[in-house]
Specification:
It is a single chain. This protein is α/β, with parallel strands linked by helices. The protein has one domain: 3-Layer(aba) Sandwich (Rossmann fold). Helices cover 47% and strands 13% of the residues. The chain has ten helices and seven strands. The protein has a seven-stranded parallel β-sheet with strand order 3-2-1-4-5-6-7, sandwiched between helices. Bound molecules: NADP nicotinamide-adenine-dinucleotide phosphate. NADP nicotinamide-adenine-dinucleotide phosphate binds next to helix 1 and helix 6.
């Protein structure tokens, strides 16, 4: 077995579920984290049936709640030591202007996309430094650009990439590998969770061309980890998009984004 323990957050759907499936044959124990306990239980039983040598532990947790994050880390500390993989996949978006966002949702996004990522790494690092391990942080192609109408999300993913790059260098001598994964659009529950009621931000031109299958994202991410890559842009088209974004002058990016198709909800103070 490659790992004694694999911890996958966001395992109740989408990419996280895909990571859990892909890692099931490579770890002795797996911890599945998300809020929807029944989904985690169903996944755990399914994976244990396919891989009877692996033990799957469900740890339902609202990662937006600091006290629940602390309890999760305490529970993880009680598990047998050994080489550990942490997949920080849980995340959410909130489509729409910041001016009209709900404060509770702003806080939730920042807790899940940033604070939980940093705290889980900090909590699990001691066992990794003793027994080895790897870290996969799911960021986004949005990390490479500022995105009006998705501002906080893109900023939170820039945080994840920056944190991952710096951490990778800090941990270089320890042998702990850190990869930041930057997918483009993927068909998961992400879009419906991010959509605000009655709010339509329009659609990105050629959006369907950018979609990458979830299993390609998982496969490319785990390959990049094996090769010791710092960042992974799953699929050629997303890798190419990342290159173009980095080459374009800032002024051009600002102009393109200022012409984006959008339908805006009323802001506070607007005449209705
Ligand atoms: N889909 C895309 O187009 C896309 C593109 C680039 C990057 N990403 C990133 O990929 C990651 C996975 O997203 P996905 O596409 O697989 O979306 P998804 O299907 O909505 O999955 C999100 C996962 O995060 C968990 N989660 C959300 N809030 C949570 C909370 N407060 N506490 C605990 N778990 C929470 C959800 O579980 P519960 O609801 O059960 O808690 C779910 O398992 C995210 O970090 C996302 O930003 C997605």
């Amino acid at each position: 077995m490659e790992y004694e323990l694999a911890i996958v957050t966001g395992a109740s759907s989408g990419l996280g579920e895909g990571f859990a499936e892909a890692l099931a044959g490579r770890t002795r124990r797996m911890v599945l984290v998300a809020r929807r306990a029944e989904r985690l239980e169903a996944l755990a039983r399914r994976l244990e049936k396919i891989h009877p040598q692996m033990k799957c532990l469900c740890m339902p947790c609202d990662l937006a709640q600091p006290t629940q994050r602390e309890s999760l880390l305490e529970e993880i500390k009680t598990l047998p030591t050994g080489r550990t993989l942490l997949v920080n996949d849980a995340g959410m978006g909130d489509y729409g202007e910041l001016a009209t966002a709900q404060l509770a949702r702003i806080r939730q996004l920042m807790e899940v996309n940033m604070l939980a990522v940093a705290e889980l790494i900090h909590g699990v690092l001691p066992r990794m430094l003793r027994n080895g391990g790897d870290i996969v942080n799911i960021a986004s192609l949005a990390a490479d650009v500022f995105l009006p109408d998705f501002a906080l999300y893109a900023a939170s993913k820039s945080f994840v990439v920056s944190l991952s790059e710096a951490l990778r260098l800090e941990l270089k001598s320890s042998g702990i590998r850190v990869v930041a994964v930057c997918p483009g659009p993927v068909h998961t529950e992400f879009g419906s969770v991010a959509r605000r009621d009655g709010y339509d931000t329009g659609d990105m031109p050629l959006k369907s061309w950018f979609y990458t299958p979830a299993n390609t994202v998982v496969r490319d991410a785990l390959r990049a980890l094996e090769w010791g890559g710092a960042r992974c842009y799953p699929s050629c088209k997303i890798w190419l998009s990342g290159c173009v974004l980095r080459l374009l002058p800032l002024g051009v990016i600002r102009w393109i984004l200022s012409t984006r198709p959008r339908r805006v909800a009323p802001r506070p103070g607007d005449e209705i």
